[in-house]
Input
Amino acid sequence: MSEDLGYSPSFKRPSEIMRMRRKRARSEAFSSSLSGDTSITEQSASSPLSCVRPFSPGPLFFNNHTRSGAGVKRRNPFANIENRHSLRNKCLRFDDDGQKAESSTTREGDFHNRDDLALSELMGKVEDMGRQENHKQKDFSLPEDDSLFKETEEDVKAPLLKSPQASSPLSVTAPPCTEYPADWSLKTRLLFTSSLSLSWSEQPKAQEEASGLSQHCRAQFSTWPHNLQDPKSCTELRCAFQQSLIYWQHPSLSWVPLFPRINAERRFAGKSAPWAQDAELQQGLMSDWSASLSSLYSLLKARLCPYFYVCSSQFTVLFRAAALAGSGSINALVSPTTRGLREAMKAEGIEFSLPLVEERTTSREQQNHCDEERQQKNSCDHEENECCSDDRETDDDDESGGSSLSWLKEMGVQDKIKKPDSISIQLLKEGKAVSVDRKPESVVYVEGPHTFTLINFLINCKSVVAAAGSQAGLPPTLLAPVAFRGAAMHSLKARCVNVKSQVGSDYQNMSSMEITGPILPSSLHAITTLLRPAQKGNFSATLYTHTPTAILNIHGTKQQGASGSVDISTFGLNPASIQHLMQPSCLGKTALTQITMNNYSYTWKK
Output
């Protein structure tokens, strides 16, 4: 029965024979790798499947012709063991003549012989194909214009996968900005933050505080190393910080906050004001105040004081010495003003200008001139030109007060309409001037010897002192960076706090320093100059501006550059701060709100 079925105890299927041979070859390759035998040719000679990597995952078999594993055929990732089985079965089922072989009833010896013959032919063909493939791989080289070396659209769309040089052909770094624009507005509060500790600026020693006060009065400025390892142990830095906080003020009343003065009635409410009902006391305060103001102007004229502020309950005046803010002479800015104040200044013979109003008028005239030229070019005949000129004359008459009433005659109602009188015409003319009262556009610019007349006007003008309210009888506040007659020395208040700031999803420890008080432009620059080396060139500052003083950053209409060299050592301030304030401000009608230093380079926001 077993013979009829072609059964033999030693019979093995072709797939089992191939599996055994692969297993034998793997064991031999593994044993050779463990033994450290470097002779690859001898090992490959003993293996029947040389120079062939099996289609299924497995070790690599070496050929007699390969040396050091070079030129070995790679594994075909698309091949399958079933494909190989089917190819082998086809070789077994068909002979060389194309005739179908005998069925399973053939004898066992004939079947094995035919199986070995077919396998040997198959392995020979595979070896020949492997040699040809190895030869092609050795001699093959890609051309220069091959697609493998070309950038595809996906490579361009994914610049992170490429080097920075490939993504940006030419990267130009901007030069660091070592200064920020000069800001002439008064600040009420500064808030500095830094990743490094700011505790070096608080709790000065008695000797450091005394040294800072002495250096300020003597106009001496210490130097410190630019690369500070420990700012808290640098005595010169701590003394210079105390020196930068000092300012001078008149009058000085410890129980009354004298800055700011505009819209500050709540700050004065409930405070004791013995001068309110005492005329003799008011006269004494005004006498001392007049002497202090005259002293300040004398220092300004002699180049011993760079600038000072006059802060009243109605307006603020900034006096600047020659060569500051790009001006060649002493100049002053008054803001905000009213029509009554401007009329009083004209009556005293003070020549002034309204820079923003004149700028707006000039731009409007230029626009009208361009429109007129455009109309003249577009007009074709002379009659249309005459009509246009008549219309323009009519418009001019209407703007000048409405003296031309020809359109009423055309309608036939000239007798029923009452003509405007001279008072109405005058009000119409002054309507534009009144519309800017108490607005930033009402800022007044005074230059040259008229600033001295302005000083006399402020001393004798009764409107600089409030006649009613919580500030009644109190003279304006005088603020200056240097000492003057009747002034009291004050120091800004500094306080340091460690906080946690959210950076992304994490919290980072930050150190903050808050400075409050009337912060002058020179004090702001001196403090930022000290923070530059102390915080390793990385800090940020938030600036809180006294709003009515933001307009003081504008240019005067008659400003001219200072001629010749100016001796800045007599101003009594740090030469670096004076050089900073000598540059014309580019902020216009706005003020700085934020300053950031990153890697010793400034950025700012208005």
In short: The mean pLDDT is 76.
